[in-house]
Amino acid sequence: MAEQDQKLPREQMGGGGGVLLVVSDVPEAEEKDSGKESDQKVPILVPEPDDLAMPDEPEKTGDEACNFESNEEQTKAIDLPENEKKALQELKHLLQDALDRHEFEASAGAEKKTTPEAKSVSETEKDSALDPPVQTIAEALLEDDGAKTLEAIEETIVAAVRSKEKPEETIVSQKVSIWGIKLLEDDRSDVILLKFLQAREFKAKEAFTMIKNTITWRREFGIDELVEEDLGCRDLERVVYTYGHSREGHPVCYNVYGEFQDKELYQNTFSDELKRQRFLRWRIQFLERSIRKLDFRPGGISTIVQVNDLKNSPGPNRWELRQATNQALHLLQDNYPEFVAKQIFINVPWWYLALSKMISPFLTQRTKSKFVVAGPSKSTETLLKYVCGEQIPTQYGGLSNGGNFGTDDTVSEVIVKPSAKHVVEFSVDEECIVRWEVRVVGWEVSYGAEFVPNAETGYTVIIQKMKKIPNSSSSGDEDRVEMVSCSYRVGEPGKVVLAINNPTSRKKKLLYRFKTNPNSADVVD
Q1: Does the structure show a pLDDT above 60 at 247?
Q2: In angstroms, rounded to a whole number, what is the distance separating the alpha carbons of residues 144 and 56?
């Protein structure tokens, strides 16, 4: 569905509507502090200040939020405090000892067993075949060379006896990989070890146990084979997908649970245990493939941003979804630590926000910093704090629609003041086709466009008369305007002028971008 890692959705609180978090970054110590039973997994959500005010936590701007996010992700061992460096070294020693002893190998039950009797006979035959008696050696030496002294014979006999001793074995350490990275091989291994340490509050022995259990689970689950397997779950690609990057460069994974309102899709995914297991394997496969694309070098991006869309998500009576959620939650908590940079929940119902406010006092600041919750009216504004407009799909308030513009075409963001008019100009020096895209978060503004030639004798061309565009969330589907996309063929030097009139008492965020194409190109808008 990207950290994004991205630390994919958890069961809704109070037996709620079955929302499965991709990766949980809440360590066991934090779960105990919350006063909940360990087997009672509830989603831990922190509301945005605009929706539910958090005590002693002022609202952050987009840049401040991203800076705070980058500070949370320590992947360079040299930048760690001394106590954390010490924990990392201790964990390395524990791992090296375990690798030297081959503790990560499969169970001994798969090895071939030999009965004591057979072993005794085999060793006896081997000894008799390879080690001739000492007396025979002495007799042969005397027969071959009678001039040999007794001392020479004794030296030969001692050498023959020593050759029987078993040579010293060379210890060969076991090689173990996680997410395609061999442990203790290079600096990328340190980044992985730090994730397990962070999940266990830098307690080396607990982190070692977690790693050992994870390696065992990955072998039993067949992760390496699963990554290459074709599960044929094409319908689920619209439920979970990765698109674009955050402002800090994290892959963004979208989880669209409203898709499960499709009864056929829901039945094909959760109606029986076999289908639920297939969904679980597909979800793990998607996460594994996403993680293997991350940069595990020190200072690299090794986490995912999760965007969880709760609009029209199934209600609390869907027990099949809750059961699949619980199964996935246990696996993700235990085996995928610290892969989430942000968990952003959008289009969240009001009761979900209220419940989040009740739980937030029991959370640590580190956990709070990763969870962001926004209602329908604040969803686009919240996303724009963490993701640029050109990286956000159109349906979530961005300008990325796969048309004439791509994610490399930067979007400009401007605040339009209340009861004010804002003008954007784009100069053109030669004949060409000018294209532009415009969007106002929440709309309820008037929009117009015109071309003004540089020549004094030229005439201004009205491309779009001033027109009021309503709030897309309040209008019907047939009148919904997500963004304005236009083009104009320019025949002389001049400028394209866009006008945005905001008659409301609230400030508005304007998103726009321009580009030019050769005049020979077709105008498709």
Answers
A1: yes
A2: 98
Going by C-alpha positions, the residue among 400, 386, 382, 381 that lies closest to residue 513 is 400
Cis geometry, peptide bond prior to residue 6 (ω within 30 degrees of 0): yes
The DSSP letter of residue 356 is H
State how far the Cα of 411 lies from the Cα of 438, in Å rounded to an integer: 9
Query: d(Cα 303, Cα 67) in Å, to the nearest integer?
Result: 15
Q: What pLDDT score was predicted for residue 319?
A: 82
What's the CA gap between 30 and 44, in Å, rounded?
11
User: From CA 287, how far away is CA 277, in angstroms rounded?
Assistant: 15
Q: Can you give the C-alpha Rg of the chain in angstroms?
A: 33
Give rounded-to-5 percent helix, strand, coil for the chain.
40, 20, 40
Where do the domains of the chain lie, and which CATH numbers do they carry? 28-74+229-386 (3.40.525.10), 108-163 (no CATH), 409-517 (2.60.120.680)
Question: Among 418, 397, 401, which Cα is nearest to 511's?
Answer: 397
d(CA 10, CA 21) in angstroms, rounded, equals: 4
Q: What are the angstrom distances between the C-alpha of 274 and each of 19, 43, 135?
A: 20, 26, 72
CA 367 to chain centre: 16
Instruction: Single out the residue of 66, 13, 36, 19 nearest to residue 346, CA to CA.
Output: 19
Of all residues in the chain, the percent with pLDDT exceeding 90 is 50
Backbone φ and ψ for 427, nearest 5 degrees, come out as -80, 145
| Strand pairing category for 484-490 and 508-517 | unpaired
Distances (CA, A) of 119 to 113, 124, 130: 10, 9, 16
List the helix and strand counts (H, then E) for the chain.
15, 15
Tokens 């289009």 label which residue? Answer: 347
DSSP class of residue 378 equals: G
pLDDT of 112: 37
Q: Which tokens is 223 given?
A: 């992760």
The whole-angstrom separation of Cα 386 and Cα 61 is 10
CA dihedral of residues 351, 353, 357, 363 (deg, nearest 10):
120
Residue type, 222: G
- Spatial contact of 26 and 38, defined as CB atoms under 8 Å apart: no
**Tokens coding 273:** 């245990």
* pLDDT greater than 50 at residue 475: no
Parallel/antiparallel/unpaired status of strands 461-469 and 420-428: unpaired
- Tens of pLDDT, residue by residue over 157-214, are 445 445 444 444 445 567 899 999 999 988 899 999 999 999 999 999 999 999 999 9
Tokens of 432: 């060409």
How far is the C-alpha of 301 from the C-alpha of 478, rounded, in Å?
A: 41
442 within 8 A of 515, measured Cβ to Cβ: no
Q: Which two tokens stand for residue 413?
A: 């963001």
Indicate the average pLDDT of the chain: 77
- SS3 at position 466: strand
Distances (CA, A) of 156 to 83, 126, 508: 59, 22, 98
Residue type at position 50:
D
Amino acid 60 reads K
